[in-house]
Sequence to fold (661 residues):
Amino acid sequence: MSEEDNADVQLEARLREQEYFRPSAEFVGQANATDPAIHDEVGEFPDGFERYAELLDWDEHWDQTFDGSNPPFFEWFVGGKLNASYNCVDRHLDERKNQTALLWEGSDGEQENITYQDLYRRVNETAAALRSVGVEEDDVVTIHLPMVPALPITMLACARIGAPHSVVFAGFSAQALAERVDSADSEYVVTIDGYYRRGEFLDHIEKADEGVAEADNDPEVLTWYRHDEPNAEVSDDYVPVDDLLDEHKHETVEPVARDAEDPLFLMYTSGTTGKPKGCQHRTGGYLAYAAATSKNVLDIEPEDTYWCAADIGWITGHSYIVYGPLALGTTSVMYEDTPDYPHKGRIWEIAERYDVDIFHTSPTAVRMFMKWGEEYPEEYDFDFRHMTTVGEPIQPEAWLWYYKHIGDEDAVIVDTWWQTETGGHLITNLPALDDMKPGSAGKACPGIEPALVDDSGEKLPAASGQAGNLIIEQPWPSMLQTVYGNDERFISTYWGDFSDTDSDDWRDWNYKAGDGAVQAQDGYWRVLGRLDDVMNVAGHRLGTMELESAVSEVQSVAEAAVAAREDTQKGEVPDVYAVVREGVDPTDEVRQEIVAAVEDEIGKFARPANVMFVDDLPKTRSGKIMRRILENISNDEGLGNTTTLRDPSVPEDIREQVQAD
Ligand code: WTA
Fold:
């Protein structure tokens, strides 16, 4: 962290300490994790994590809990065999085949109640359908589906036959889809004709058309239909899933016994380079950790109705809509459309209708609900026992509003810090064991060893209140296995900076999270945000380099940089600073081309908030763009240290230009 960054975070860290809130006796009385010994028990490294694996059904027991002999390629539950689809579906049939597994609410109030028995049938038939077109064990299947039941069903069908899935968030563009298909060497794409956004049918399959044309690979496309018949133009080359399902009615497919270390899925995420990374997750350790944290942190019981209002296209949905909750045999709610369609009380209407017990959302959503006002939730009769936030730091003000107006000062809140790479929660309270503190993620999860280091890798004293780089010192079962097809990138991104990479002792390897954090005297962690060129837009992770490479596709642009502007609603939004080519007029048209390029390359959700035309960008003498200075300009802060710049007058000029705009 530079001195300047450090000063910033130190300042934030000095913000007033918040008071604690106790969980209610009623909550504690019924909670899953109530014995503080859990920290010591799970913390017995590595055997403590066996109790997580024991939550699952294994075809073969593991021989070794942890193999750290080839760091950082750690292995978990080595020699064990299991199937994730079996664990999320089949094993619940004896006890609760008629219980709802997925409770889906469509845009206009359409409902589907998918029992475990229904899910079993549909996953089996879909698995048979996938096999019939040639999908084999270890083939990567790219799934580009929105929030419809076909999404978890396809994921579980893949898991059943041992084909790792790579779900691409539906909001990603055709280009982004193509890039992920190629990067994962995927020969299959599963899509749908369309879905509903704000009540309107949105043609989704056109992204597959364009994406497949763009991709170097020539994947086979399978398509679901949102209704009985297609509502958009579907190419004759695509295979309708419904036809396959008809052909494979009543078929069952034996779940493939996967090695614990066989990959379950890939999830692409933004990093500091232009290309997203395919985080590869293993079957055994991932599922064990997702199930255990669903139980201990989210406090899920099979009898609950649990609603994580995230999108399955991101890691939160993978771990905490699909795999964790279904491994525990609970009822998981899914909703197709946006929270304000057709009215701003939609979320609370659904919560009331299904009597949701546990609710999970992002700080961005909380800020939005807060802005809309408490009159919306007040109109509905719902009663949450437990609430979660994830994805960004939550400001105490938003936390308090959530607690009061949504939780009725009675529901517990867990603020969960984790990442696509970590597979599951790493820092958050176990809700019956630790009091809540607004704005703090809380304590480390059992068996997780976070620490802070300065930029030279020197460890900061524990609980010092000083800000530093967040690292995790000890492996855990759901950590990513590698970056798909790129072990070197895996090592350089996550381990290079703060590990002794020559050592073959796992204790010398520290996982770098890329976040800045502080640990207060009470041991509570506050995560302050990314220290690298990754921004967090409404809880969506975006790389500035990814945005910049999209902008540079525009012919008229000579050079561009992207900086994060703080936004009261979305947390951060991207500002583009662009230099146009000689002889080009920086017109509104160019501005629109830039916006369109970002939408095309990434997706509409990544749309820049502002496009600013400038004469030059601030650069160091070696030519590195100083985004930090642009960020200061975007956020109306002092310019900071400009002495290392090749031309220190540049930022002043930019500031004037921007303010004149
Ligand atoms: C941020 C989402 C503060 C953080 C599960 C992290 C958080 C990135 C929190 C990962 C939290 C996530 N408090 N910051 N509770 N949760 N973050 O991969 O910067 O989409 O590195 O995973 O989100 O985002 P990702």
